Amino acid sequence: MTLPVNSSGSTKDRILGAAEVLFAQRGFDGASLRQLTAAAGVNLAAVNYHFGSKEKLVEEVFRRRLDALNARRLEALAKIAGLPNTTLEDVLAAYIRPALDLSHEDNGSLFMRVLARAFAEHDDTLRQFLSEHYGHVMRQFTAEFARLLPQLSKSELYWRIDLVTGALTHAMSGFGMIQRKHDVSEQVHREQTAQHLIRFSLAGLSHP
Amino acid sequence: MTLPVNSSGSTKDRILGAAEVLFAQRGFDGASLRQLTAAAGVNLAAVNYHFGSKEKLVEEVFRRRLDALNARRLEALAKIAGLPNTTLEDVLAAYIRPALDLSHEDNGSLFMRVLARAFAEHDDTLRQFLSEHYGHVMRQFTAEFARLLPQLSKSELYWRIDLVTGALTHAMSGFGMIQRKHDVSEQVHREQTAQHLIRFSLAGLSHP
DNA sequence: GGCTGGTTCAAACGATCGTTTGAGCATACG
DNA sequence: CGTATGCTCAAACGATCGTTTGAACCAGCC
How big is the CA angle at A154 (ends A150 and A157), to the nearest 5 degrees? Predict the structure, then answer.
């Protein structure tokens, strides 16, 4: 309906910004290039000129944010991994906090919705793309979880990590009913969210 | 690609069956009425004749399964709610097992994918429809959780239930990496899944 | 038989989609 | 200056979408 013209940055950046918003709001198929280019204030043909196709644009939207998220998670993990006094809570914080931080920068919270949508769509090419850019991070965290939870069998550990992932995806994408109250600052709410996620995951991972 | 013609049941039922499969595979927008009617072996115009529109068909697909799921959950809850010796595990079982049972009947497992997709789509009309057909069930379970977890504040309880919901949705919709091994029977796998979900949720809900 | 109400059918409708085209414009370089 | 290069633009392309149409069919009933 409304057509807010974004007039800052290069054409390419304006397209990426508008794409992130519209993909989160209406999905990859639901957001048309005409809506997208109108919101970005650029010509329709600009998408195919700068990105080659709509599908390539989708991948670019992912890569830009996912690279940043992966880098921060691995950086946080590197500081604690393998140390003798590292706790499970530390590893969970290294996994969760970068995602929450990203959610509150720029249009980052919208990106988590985009990410959750990609999980829901069972599009194979997109899942393969996610696996390529995501797999090695999950593997490193899983290895660290395994070190700190030696009493769990491999299958038991996978199950629990899988369920933790579900809870995190659900919470961080804003699906749930929990919304920030108006009398709570964003920073306070983010910290509360982190505390809930970490303590919940801690209990789910380490119960006997 | 393949066009398996389903030739059993009435035209209406064949459409509903094919819709459940295709909506789960390609999403509500991704599955076209032409693919759908071809798979069902009926004429293209049959959808609008029997259901009025594609959107009405989507609602009908939901209602059929959701009514069954709600009925079983409430039935299971009614047997234990309010009793003095009821445990948290009993309530969780009443919530989780009907969904798992449904997943292994007919095309039920596909329906859980459809349900998860509906969560991902932020379509307001569909969310409102889900809230109407789902809200009272969640309210009854929440009341029972509150009774068995009196030490938790209301906000704390909502948070934990929200995260449990995320884990369940994730697991039951088949997003995760956990797949049934070929040497495990379906019944055994279902029981293992139930055990994992219940024990994980138990730990997440009741940790100090 | 004739008629009726419910159902199926092929065909077409208008709208919207992603993509392509070719002219137009601006800036940089010889 | 001329010309090459990178980018933007309006316009059109073919394809596919959900929906509508009107004829055809087919029971059951008078």
Answer: 75
Superfamily grouping for domain A61-206: Tetracycline Repressor, domain 2 (1.10.357.10)
- Whether residue A109 lies within 8 A of chain B, CB to CB, comes out as no
Query: For chain B, how many helices (H) and strands (E)?
Result: 9, 0
Comparing CA positions, the residue from A57, A27, A33, A20 lying closest to residue B28 is A27
ipTM metric: 0.82
Query: Taking the domain A1-52, which CATH number applies?
Result: 1.10.10.60
| Structure confidence by residue, pLDDT tens digits, A77-132 | 999 998 999 999 999 999 999 988 887 777 667 788 888 777 777 667 777 788 88
Nearest Cβ partner of B207 from A27, A117, A203?
Answer: A203
CATH superfamily ID and name for B62-206: Tetracycline Repressor, domain 2 (1.10.357.10)
Reported as a single tens digit per residue, the pLDDT across A51-78 is: 999 999 999 998 988 899 999 999 999 9
Q: Record the pTM.
A: 0.85
Kindly list the residues from chain A whose CB atom is less than 8 angstroms away from the CB atom of residue B116. 120
What average pLDDT score do residues A184-199 get? 87
Query: Distances in Å between the alpha carbon of A69 and those of A72, A99, A120, A157, B45?
Result: 5, 7, 20, 24, 47
Nucleotide nearest to A52 (CA to C1'): C19
Please indicate whether, in this complex, the C-beta atoms of A163 and B177 are within 8 angstroms of each other: no
**What residue spans define the domains of chain A?**
1-52, 61-206
